[in-house]
Write a structure and sequence with these properties.
Radius of gyration: 23 Å
Number of domains: 1
Number of helices: 8
Largest sheet: 3 strands, antiparallel
Number of strands: 3
Strand order of the largest sheet: 1-2-3
Keywords: Membrane, Transmembrane, Transmembrane helix
Oligomer: single chain
């Protein structure tokens, strides 16, 4: 019974890992578009006024909404720079998510958790992190396949004897899933900061 439950959890883990890849891809490419489509969301409101600003050059309505969302001390140059770009919602979404972490003290910096401050990143870490996500998914699929292989066969190498234990394989699978979740959160965070850094260099 325990073995059946373990193999069921392994199967679920493999399915979750594959879904993580889809979920991360979807979040990277479509999530902001959905929020932009609704005029009731902050991103939708900003996007509408950004389009108006791009068409007319009149920024006041955009700045009024930004004042309510970001506060009085937000750097308006970042907002106007984002609104003037063809893919404005992507940059506006980054400002909405991370704008309150931006510190203006002679130059733009970001305040991380635990009050740690750094410069905004100049390189996009997304390709590297997405590669890690794909590698993690392949690792989970390998471990899942290994669990099936060891039903009929044993790994004879003594140093790899742990591969014959289905519960160890299960724990490794869920450890990799947790790692992938952490990588996806880090990817969203760093990519937003990279976009804001791009805005700061454009506006400056």
């Amino acid at each position: 019974m325990i073995s059946v439950l373990t193999f069921l959890l392994i199967f679920v883990g493999v399915a979750v890992s594959v879904y993580q890849v889809y979920d991360i891809y979807y979040a990277q490419n479509f999530e902001d578009d959905e929020r932009q489509a609704s005029s009731e969301t902050p991103l939708g409101q900003l996007s509408q006024q950004a389009e108006r600003y791009a068409a007319t050059g009149e920024p006041q309505r955009l700045l009024d909404i930004a004042g309510r969302l970001f506060g009085a001390h937000f750097d308006q140059r970042l907002l106007l720079s984002a609104a003037s770009l063809p893919n404005a919602p992507q940059y506006l979404g980054a400002l909405l998510r991370r704008g309150r972490r931006i510190v203006i003290n002679g130059r733009l910096r970001v305040r991380h958790p635990l009050a740690w401050k750094t410069n905004l990143p100049r390189r996009d870490s997304r390709p590297v992190l997405l590669t890690l996500v794909l590698v993690n998914c392949l690792v989970v699929m390998f471990l899942g396949g290994l669990s099936l292989y060891t039903i009929a066969y044993r790994v004879p190498v003594e140093s790899l004897a742990w591969m014959n234990s289905d519960w160890i394989l299960m724990l490794l699978i869920y450890a990799v899933i947790a790692m992938t979740h952490g990588i996806s959160r880090l990817d969203g965070y760093l990519h937003d900061l990279y976009l804001i850094g791009t805005l700061s260099r454009t506006a400056g």
